[in-house]
Structure formats: C-alpha cells, structure tokens
Design brief:
The strands form 8 sheets. Strands 2, 3, 4, 6, 9, 10, 11, 13 and 14 form a 9-stranded antiparallel β-sheet that branches. A 5-stranded antiparallel β-sheet has the order 1-8-7-12-5, with no helix packed on it. The protein has a 4-stranded antiparallel β-sheet with strand order 15-17-22-20, with no helix packed on it. Helices cover 5% and strands 45% of the residues. It has 3 domains: 170 residues, Jelly Rolls (Sandwich); 112 residues, Immunoglobulin-like (Sandwich); 102 residues, Immunoglobulins (Immunoglobulin-like, Sandwich). The longest helix is centred in the C-terminal third of the chain and has 22 residues. With 450 residues, it is mainly beta.
C-alpha cells in the first residue's frame, strides 16, 4: 500500500488522565486483523511540528465482549501506520455511547496496541474507559485528553498495524451491548509514522437521466467511486433519494458495505423511475460510515446530484363519432377517417383496435401492425368503412386501447334495400320513339297556331 511517509523525531508530552477517566495497561493480546479496515478521518502534523496526528472515526463499533477473554471475539479496527512507529498518546477524544443497561456504560472500554509477526505477548496494550462511574443506560457524550499510552507508547510491529479495540472492562457473566455513536472520534499522536488516509470521491458529481415516462424506468447511467488516497477506505453503503435507484445491472461496486484499496475504483449504475410528470431531482450518496461533516476540508464529494424529467403521453382520437348514412345492403361504404394524436410530452403506444356493428378498418396512415408508438406531437389516421347487411339502422363502435386509456368512436349507418336496376324489354325502343314523335308533332301544332 502506498503511504506518504512522515519522519517524526519526538513524542508528544504525556498528558494526565482527565477527570472520570481510567487508563490501565493490560496484557491480553489481540489476534490478527479480520479485515475491519479503519476509517481515518484526517492526517496532519501535530502542534509541536515534530509528530503526526491522525483522527479515527469509531462510529458504529460495539463494546460487548470481555477484555479478558479470547481477543479474536473482540470488535476492533486496524490502521496501517508502518512498522516501528510509536503511538504515544490519545491527544483528544470526543465520543458518544449508547448503553443498553445501566452498568454497561461504565464498563465499555477502548483499547490500543499492536501485534504482528512477533510475539503478541511482547507488545504493549492499554485500555481506556471513558465513562467511569456512569452506571446509567441510554446515550451520553464525553470529551477529553490528552491521555498518555503507558510504557512509552505502543510500538508497532513488522506488520505495521495499530489496533483500536472495543470490549468490556470486567470479566463477568454479563456482556454489555454498548454502541459508539456517530461523531465518535479519537485523535492519536505518533512518531516515525507512515500514515495513509483514504480519499473516497465520486465522478461525475451530477447525472441527468433525461426523459422517462411516468411508471417506466429510464436507461441506466453510471458514476464512479474512487479512492485516490493512500490507504484503504470503507464504504458503508450507497443511498438514494428521489425517484432514483440502483439499476438491476448494478455496476461493479458491491451491494452493501465494501472497501476500496488505495487507487481502486468501481462503478454504480443508476436509473430514473418517475412517479409524476415534470422535473425531478434527488441524489446518490456514498456513505463512509461517519456523520455529515466528518470528512476533512477539501475532501472529494461523495454525493452525486441526480435529475430527470417525468413525461406522460396524452393520446386522443377525433372525431368522436362517424355517420355513414344509408348504404345499400351487400355493399361497402366509402372510407371515413379518424385521427389519433399524442398531445403529451412523452411517447405513448396504441396497443389494440376493435370494431363492432359491421364496421371495419380500411387503410389510413397509422401502422397496420399493433402496437405502435406515437411520439409527442405525432398523429396518424385510420380509415373506417361500413359493410351493409341486415336492413335497418346500425350502430357500432371503434375502440382503441392506448396504455391505460380506452378511446371510443361512435359509429352509425343504415342498411337499405338496393334501388331496382333498369331491364330492357322487347319493343321498348319503339315506345320511346313514339313518345318522341308525339312530342315533336305537338310542338309543330303550337307553332302553327301562332
């Protein structure tokens, strides 16, 4: 792991215990680290200019097993600060504890020490009890420091790991369940340290998911979570607000809690799921396990601002009725048209057509294959014809299903008896000629009288 090395020449002056605190050396060593990477909030030179200070967030850790039993059962975090470093003191602490039982707050301990390739029994180990004498349940906060680590400090062994552990002071049959709350931090000083710190950030810091119809899911877009720092960083999870969610194809970042080594990155795929038309906003937040404001000034953003626009189709049909008049039985009328128009701001589909009463489709510009889609502002036509059958008035309908909408056009016509056809008969031409001649002679007679 890459670390920025800081050569430190002197130790912090050892401070006295604050009122109500106890700090005692104990000899039950920790086992090797179990992958609980520490969260280093910040790293900076100590006020004396010769040592280094680093701040550790212990939020969420639980003191629930005895400090005097098998150390592998104990909760702890490990910090890689390099071999031969010496942690000399807790410069300050600001912790909040929630205890489930009245006696457990005063039993909750924080331990410091080191172990590694060497004999664990040879290393220093000290336990710090912040709430001595406070035998009440519930939540309480306390601050203090500096506190000197006995025997000249905790000397880090070959594996480079410094441990902060959480346990119960007394060996008894009752194990406490005391949880260190948000904003609980410890500030340490060390010499000869090579302290790395994670820098977890996101890129880009905003995504516009574009338009998506209400009740649908947009195409996914992704953002990247990167650790550009010099130590492994823990990520407690990724939270979303607004009508946004992680995509089914989630990206390369694991679900739930995970860690990123220094220089490592992964991706998260995001979708927009609008529940109402109009502009929508929300966020995706990478949870680093601490309270808001824990990150040092200038740290990368861990929030991706998300926007999208909810759209909705509005498909209508006009006119609402057609009348085909009187059509001779056994014949088909000329086509009349109805027009479908999408006046909404989102695409919508026309899924099915149905006719009743002897009416049917005949052409038009709407696709013949259903369903089809109308984009915002788009329209198309359907031709409708009537084929006359049984004599008398006929009523029917043309129904279209467009998403959740049912569009109906009322149809009317009348089926009538066909007109008789002219049938020529023998002698018919002579009768016509006779009529013509009679008319001619009548006209001549009128002219003579004049």
């Amino acid at each position: 792991m890459n670390r920025s090395s800081v050569a430190l020449a002197t130790l912090l002056a050892l401070g006295a215990l604050g009122p109500g605190q106890a700090f005692a050396a104990k000899g039950d060593p920790l086992a090797d680290a179990r992958g609980l990477a520490a969260r280093i909030v910040s790293v900076a030179p100590a006020p004396d200019g010769t040592s280094l200070q680093f701040v550790v967030d212990i939020s969420g850790q639980v003191s629930q097993t005895s400090c005097g039993v098998d150390p592998t059962t104990r909760n702890f975090v490990s910090l890689d600060i390099g071999p031969n470093a010496v942690v000399t003191s807790i410069d300050s602490f600001s912790v909040t504890l929630n205890a489930a039982s009245p006696s457990w707050r005063s039993e909750a301990d924080i331990g410091v020490g080191s172990t590694g390739a060497g004999n664990p029994a040879d290393r220093e180990q000290a336990f710090f009890t912040p709430f001595v004498g406070q035998d009440t349940s519930g939540t309480a906060s306390i601050t203090g420091g500096p506190l000197a680590i006995p025997d000249g400090g905790a000397t880090i062994e070959a594996d480079g790991l410094f441990y902060v552990s959480f346990c119960e002071t007394f060996v008894d049959a009752v194990n406490p369940n005391a949880t260190w709350q948000a904003n609980s931090t410890l500030t340490f000083s060390c010499s000869n340290c090579q302290v790395g710190a994670p820098e977890i950030g996101v890129s880009p810091t905003s995504l516009n998911l574009g338009d998506a119809n209400v009740g649908t899911t947009s195409a996914a877009q992704s953002f990247t979570i990167s650790n550009t720092g010099t130590a492994e960083g823990d990520i407690a999870g990724i939270g979303f607000t607004g009508p946004f969610a992680r995509a089914a194809s989630a990206g390369s970042c694991p679900a739930g809690a995970f860690s990123l080594a220094d220089g490592e990155s992964c991706t998260v795929n995001v979708v927009f799921q609008p529940v109402a038309a109009g502009a929508a906003s929300g966020s995706a937040t990478v949870d680093l396990g601490g309270a808001p404001g824990d990150a040092p000034a200038g740290a990368p953003s861990t929030v991706v601002n998300l926007t999208g626009n909810g759209t909705a189709a509005s498909i209508g049909v006009a006119p609402s009725s057609l009348n085909f008049g009187s059509i001779a039985a056994g014949t088909t009328s000329a086509a009349q048209t109805v027009t479908f128009t999408n006046s909404g701001n989102g695409s919508g589909s026309v899924d099915s057509f149905s006719f009743s009463g002897g009416f049917s489709r005949s052409g038009g510009t709407c696709p013949s294959t259903l369903p089809f889609t109308l984009t915002p502002g788009q329209s198309c036509t359907v031709g409708v014809v009537f084929t006359a059958g049984v004599l008398g008035p006929v009523s029917g309908s043309f129904t279209a299903n467009a998403g959740a909408s049912v569009l109906t056009v009322a149809l009317a016509a009348a089926s009538i008896t066909p007109a008789p056809a002219f049938i020529p008969v023998a002698g018919g031409w002579a009768l016509a000629l006779m009529i013509a001649l009679i008319g001619l002679f009548a006209g001549i007679a009128v002219l003579r009288r004049q």
